[in-house]
Each structure stands twice: as C-alpha cells, then as structure tokens.
Amino acid sequence: ILLLTGTVVSRDKRTYLFIIPSLVYLLFNCMVEPMMGFFNRFTVPVYAIILIPQIIVLDKYFARSEHKSKFKPVFLSVFCVFLICFPVRQTKRIMEYVVNYSQGLDKIHISFGKILSKVVRNPGDYTLVVGDAGAIPFYSKWNSIDSIGLNDEYIAHNGFDADYVYKKEPDVLILYSEDGKEASKAMGGGYDYALFTNQNINKYSLNGSLQHWKEYYLMIYFKKSLTDYNEILNKIKSSY
C-alpha cells in the first residue's frame, strides 16, 4: 500500500521522505511481536510521528483523484486500521507469554534480586553474570555483567567471550536453562551455554535452579572460593 501510494503521488518527490521510512517501519513490525523483550518496543514513540505524515500524503493523493468522494473515507479508514492494528497481533500465544513472563519477573527475578541484596553486607563488592539483566542487578545492587553484552563495552564491540567473563571473576553465574539441569544452547544467543561448557565452570557450584516459566529456568552457580560461601547459601535457602 505504501509503495503504491508513493508511486501515485510521485509528482511530489518530497512524499518519499515519508513513504520510505514508513514502509521500513511497517515491515519491521511485521517481523516481530509487540511485547517486552522484543526490539520494536524501542520504536513505539516514533510510531505516531510516522503515521501522521502518511495520512497527510494519502489525503493529498485523494485530493487529486477523480474518485476522491467515493473512496477516500473507506480507504483512509482501512489504511489507518491496518497501520495501527496489524503490528499489534494479540494472539493467545502472545498473551500467554506476556502474562507468564511478567509473573516470572515478579516471582523469580525481583525476589531473587532482593534476597541477594540482603545476604551480603556490601552488595557493591560482589559481581554477578546474568543474561536477562534487568530486575536482578537492579534489586540486588550487585555489580553485573550482562552476558548478552548490553552493559559491557568489550563484549558489545568484540562479541561474547567466555574467558573474558571468567577473568572478571564473578561471584555468581545465573544461566539460562530450558530444563534446570543444563544451560540452554538457544536462549540468550547461546552465550550462557559457552559459560557452561567452559572449563572455568568447575570453579563454581550449582546451587539450584529457579523456574521462571515452562522451559525457562535460571541456574544459579556460586563461586566455590566465595567468602562466607556457606553462610550466604544458608541465608538464601532460608529466604525461600
């Protein structure tokens, strides 16, 4: 629809300044799901900015069309509904994911982050590694390494490197898992699996797995040489 509109209004070359970015944005929304955790959430604020010029361009087109009185209201209505509703595909699967994922954040991520902040005297002296790096680093107040690389300059520019992460000597590893027994090869880009299969994992002990949702666990590894290792683990267990 956007390409056709751009062709019809080709007399005014400036319309392509609106047509092209709008087309890219629309196609982008066709490829992803509109929920937390997917990339198009970053583009939501610009959606209205793109939508308004599109309506103006279409209005110009119908102003030149000999059928404007007959088709303009219908076409504009359908076009606007399409632009607004098509990216928002609220299927049963999506809603199930949204509800369960948010509950998992409350039940697992937030609660575990709060527990970590209480089981040590100075949270800022400890470091953890986690891929779903939001609630746990925030509530724990621990230093964090995002295994996906969003908060680490080296990983962001050079790609994930398990040896680099281990050189940071993190105190806790929180790894994605689909069964609570082995790190996932797929979740989080497979970076946690690289940590899991690295020989340095032997310096850590698996102390349990927290089930976020079906086929989504967080495997909790503590460094064996961690100061007050047993005391910390006992405090965590008593918190549950």
Characterization of this structure:
The protein is elongated. A 5-stranded mixed sheet has the order 2-1-3-5-4. The chain is α/β, with parallel strands linked by helices. Helices cover 51% and strands 13% of the residues.
Total strands: the figure is 5
Radius of gyration: 25 Å
Helical fraction equals 40-55%
Tally of individual helices = 10
Provide the structure class.
Answer: alpha/beta
Indicate the multimeric state.
single chain
Q: Let me know the largest β-sheet.
A: 5 strands, mixed
Note the beta-strand portion: 5-15%
Report the uncertain regions: 33-37
- In whole angstroms, the N-to-C terminal distance is 55 Å
Shape: elongated
Overall pLDDT confidence: 77
Order of helices and strands: HHHHHEHEHHEHEEH
How are strands sequenced across the largest beta sheet?
Answer: 2-1-3-5-4
Quick overview:
With 240 residues, the protein is α/β, with parallel strands linked by helices. The protein has 10 helices and 5 strands.
Which key terms come to mind for this protein?
240 residues, alpha/beta, 5 strands, 10 helices, elongated, single chain
Describe how the helices and strands are arranged:
Blueprint (H helix, E strand, L loop, with lengths): L1 H7 L7 H16 L15 H18 L3 H18 L6 H28 L7 E4 L4 H6 L2 E4 L6 H6 L3 H6 L4 E6 L13 H7 L6 E10 L2 E8 L5 H11 L1
Parallel strand pairs: 1-2, 1-3
Antiparallel strand pairs: 3-5, 4-5
